[in-house]
C-alpha cells in the first residue's frame, strides 16, 4: 500500500493576529514547543512510518507567497518534500485537495492520502498514530475516513460530526451528518446526547475516491482543478498549476463541497465513516484555544515570553520583545509584538479577525507583515524610520545572496556587524568584515552576499525620497524572483 501525507498550508490565521499575519501565518509559528505547527503536522503524519504501507515523502499545498517559508521549515527538520504545489489563488480546501490528488496519481498508482491542515496541534502523538493506522486500513478498503475529535466542552467554534455505532461494535462509525458551528445551547445538547464529535479537518482517503466524489458533487471544481493541473509548470520542487484555470475554479471547502453530501446518498462513490480521536487535539483557531492547551499556573494563567502576573486569573499573555505585566485582570488575552499589541476578552477572541479586516480596509501593513520580514536569503527588521530615512537590521544566511538590483529613489549605507559581506557595486566586487562599511549610491546596480559559513548581519541605512519595498529593480536572482515578486 502506498501512502502520501498531504499538508494543506494555505490558511492565513487571522484570529491569531498580531502573532499570525498574512505573509507569516500561524502554521509557521512555534506556539509552545520547539517546532512550528507546520513542522509538527509533517512529523505527526510521518510518525506512522511503514506500519501500514510504503510512506511517501510529504506533498505540500501552499500559497505562492509562502513558498520559501515552506521549504525553510522542512529543511530545518530534515524533510525533503515530494513536491510543493503552489496555489495561484486562494480557493479554499476542496480545490487544494483536488490538486493534491492529481499530483499523487501522477506515478500511476492510487495512494491513500493522509490529509492534514498545517496549523493544528496534537498532544498525544502515539494515540494519533494508532488511530491513523486504523484510518488507513479503512481507506484502503474503499471508505472515506474523517477523524472526529472527542468533545470535551460545548464548543461553538467547531463544526460537528454526527455518527452511529458500527454494527460490529468496532471503532469505525458511519457518519450520519456534518453539522455547522452551533450556538451554545445546541452545543450543550450535542454533548449531552452523545454521538457527536468535533470536525477536525483531518481526512484519510484514496486519491481516486476524492476525485470521484468531487466529480459527483462539484464537477465544476473538479474540472477547474484538472485544467489547472494539466497546464501546470514545473520549477522543482515547486509545481505551479495554471493561474487562469485555477482562478476560474469555484472556491469551496472539503466539508461543503463533498463531506456534507455523502451521508444519505445511496449513489455515493464511497461510504463516509469516522474514527474518534482522543489525543489532545486543537486547531488553535483563536487565542482562547492557545490558552486552553497552554501550561497554566495555579491561577489559570498562561505565559509565553517575559511576563509577570499580579493578582490575575485565567489570562493568556504572549510577549515577544519586552516585559509584559498584568495586575488585577481576569479572562484576558494580551499579545505583544514589536509593532502591535492586542488586548482582548478571552471569550471574544474569535473576533480578532475583525481587527485584521479593518487593517486591510485601511491599507495598514500590520495585517500583512511583521516588523521582521522573512526572505529566502534570511530576514530584515525595520528598526527605525522617519522622513527620508529608514534603518534596517539585515541577516543573510551562509552562502545566500540578495538579488542583483538597483533603486530609483534611495541610496544605502551598509555597516557589517558580524560575518563577512561580499558587496557588488557597479563593476566592483569587494569583501567587508566586522565594523567596515560601504555606500551604495542611488541608481547603482548592487548585490549583497554572504560567502562565509556563519550568518552575516549588517545595519542598512536608507535615505531618499521614497523608501518602499517596491522600489526594487531585479536583474538577477538566485531564487527566481522578478521585480514584481515581494517575497
Walk me through the structure:
Residues 5-298 form the Nucleotidyl transferase domain. Residues 363-477 form the Mannose-6-phosphate isomerase type II C-terminal domain. Belongs to the mannose-6-phosphate isomerase type 2 family. The protein has 487 residues and is an alpha/beta fold. It has three domains: 2-282, Spore Coat Polysaccharide Biosynthesis Protein SpsA, Chain A, CATH 3.90.550; 287-360, no CATH class; 372-476, Jelly Rolls (Sandwich), CATH 2.60.120.10. Helices cover 22% and strands 33% of the residues. It contains eleven helices and 31 strands. A six-stranded antiparallel beta sheet has the order 21-22-23-30-25-28, with no helix packed on it. It is globular, with a radius of gyration of 25 Å.
Short characterization:
The chain has 487 residues and is α/β, with parallel strands linked by helices.
Element layout with pairings:
Elements: E1 2-9, H1 37-46, E2 54-55, E3 59-63, H2 67-76, E4 83-87, H3 93-104, E5 112-117, E6 121-122, H4 125-140, E7 144-149, E8 160-164, E9 173-179, H5 184-193, E10 196-206, H6 207-217, H7 219-230, E11 233-235, E12 238-240, H8 243-247, H9 254-259, E13 272-277, E14 281-282, H10 287-293, E15 302-304, E16 307-310, E17 316-319, E18 324-327, E19 332-337, E20 340-345, H11 352-361, E21 372-375, E22 378-386, E23 389-396, E24 404-406, E25 410-418, E26 421-425, E27 428-432, E28 437-440, E29 446-449, E30 456-464, E31 473-476
Parallel strand pairs: 1-2, 1-3, 1-5, 3-4, 4-12, 7-13, 15-17, 16-18, 17-19
Antiparallel strand pairs: 5-10, 6-14, 7-10, 8-9, 8-10, 9-13, 11-12, 19-20, 21-22, 22-23, 23-30, 24-31, 25-28, 25-30, 26-27, 26-29
Amino acid at each position: 500500500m502506498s501512502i502520501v501525507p498531504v499538508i494543506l498550508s494555505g490558511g492565513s490565521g487571522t484570529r491569531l493576529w498580531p502573532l499570525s499575519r498574512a505573509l507569516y501565518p500561524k502554521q509557521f509559528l512555534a506556539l509552545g514547543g520547539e517546532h512550528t505547527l507546520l513542522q509538527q503536522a509533517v512529523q505527526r503524519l510521518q510518525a506512522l512510518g511503514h506500519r501500514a504501507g510504503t510512506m511517501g515523502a510529504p506533498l505540500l499545498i501552499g500559497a505562492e507567497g509562502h513558498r520559501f517559508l515552506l521549504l525553510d521549515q522542512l529543511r530545518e527538520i530534515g524533510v525533503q518534500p515530494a513536491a510543493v504545489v503552489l496555489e495561484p489563488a486562494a480557493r479554499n480546501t476542496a480545490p487544494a485537495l483536488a490538486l493534491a490528488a492529481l499530483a499523487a496519481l501522477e506515478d500511476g498508482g492510487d495512494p491513500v492520502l493522509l490529509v492534514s491542515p498545517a496549523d493544528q496541534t496534537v498532544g498525544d502523538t502515539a494515540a494519533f498514530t494508532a488511530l491513523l493506522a486504523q484510518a488507513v486500513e479503512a481507506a484502503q478498503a474503499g471508505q472515506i475516513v474523517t477523524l472526529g475529535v472527542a468533545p470535551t466542552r460545548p464548543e461553538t467554534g467547531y463544526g460537528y460530526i454526527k455518527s452511529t455505532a458500527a454494527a460490529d461494535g468496532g471503532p469505525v462509525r458511519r457518519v450520519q451528518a456534518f453539522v455547522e458551528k452551533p450556538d451554545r445551547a445546541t452545543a450543550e445538547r450535542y454533548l449531552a446526547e452523545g454521538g457527536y464529535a468535533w470536525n477536525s479537518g483531518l481526512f484519510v482517503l484514496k486519491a481516486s475516491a476524492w476525485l470521484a466524489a468531487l466529480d459527483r458533487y462539484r464537477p465544476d471544481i473538479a474540472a477547474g482543478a484538472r485544467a489547472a493541473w494539466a497546464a501546470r509548470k514545473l520549477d522543482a520542487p515547486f509545481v505551479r498549476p495554471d493561474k487562469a484555470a485555477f482562478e476560474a475554479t469555484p472556491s469551496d471547502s472539503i466539508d461543503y463541497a463533498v463531506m456534507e453530501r455523502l451521508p444519505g446518498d445511496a449513489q455515493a462513490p464511497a461510504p463516509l465513516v469516522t474514527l474518534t480521536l482522543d489525543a489532545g487535539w486543537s486547531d488553535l483557531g483563536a487565542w482562547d484555544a492557545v490558552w486552553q492547551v497552554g501550561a497554566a499556573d495555579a491561577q489559570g494563567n498562561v505565559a509565553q515570553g517575559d511576563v509577570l502576573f499580579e493578582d490575575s486569573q485565567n489570562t493568556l499573555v504572549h510577549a515577544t520583545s519586552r516585559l509584559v505585566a498584568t495586575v488585577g485582570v481576569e479572562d484576558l488575552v494580551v499579545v505583544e509584538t514589536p509593532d502591535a499589541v492586542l488586548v482582548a476578552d478571552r471569550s471574544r477572541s474569535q473576533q480578532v479577525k475583525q481587527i485584521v479586516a479593518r487593517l486591510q480596509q485601511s491599507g495598514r501593513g500590520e495585517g500583512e507583515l511583521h516588523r521582521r520580514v522573512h526572505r529566502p536569503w534570511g530576514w530584515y527588521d525595520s528598526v527605525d524610520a522617519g522622513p527620508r530615512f529608514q534603518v534596517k537590521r539585515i541577516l543573510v544566511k551562509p552562502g545566500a545572496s540578495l538579488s542583483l538590483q538597483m533603486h530609483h529613489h534611495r541610496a544605502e549605507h551598509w555597516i557589517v556587524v558580524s560575518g563577512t559581506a561580499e558587496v557588488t557595486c557597479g563593476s566592483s566586487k569587494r569583501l567587508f568584515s566586522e565594523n567596515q562599511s560601504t555606500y551604495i549610491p542611488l541608481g547603482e546596480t548592487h548585490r549583497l552576499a554572504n560567502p562565509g559559513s556563519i550568518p552575516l548581519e549588517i545595519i542598512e541605512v536608507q535615505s531618499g525620497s521614497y523608501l518602499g519595498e517596491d522600489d526594487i529593480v531585479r536583474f538577477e536572482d538566485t531564487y527566481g524572483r522578478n521585480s514584481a515578486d515581494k517575497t
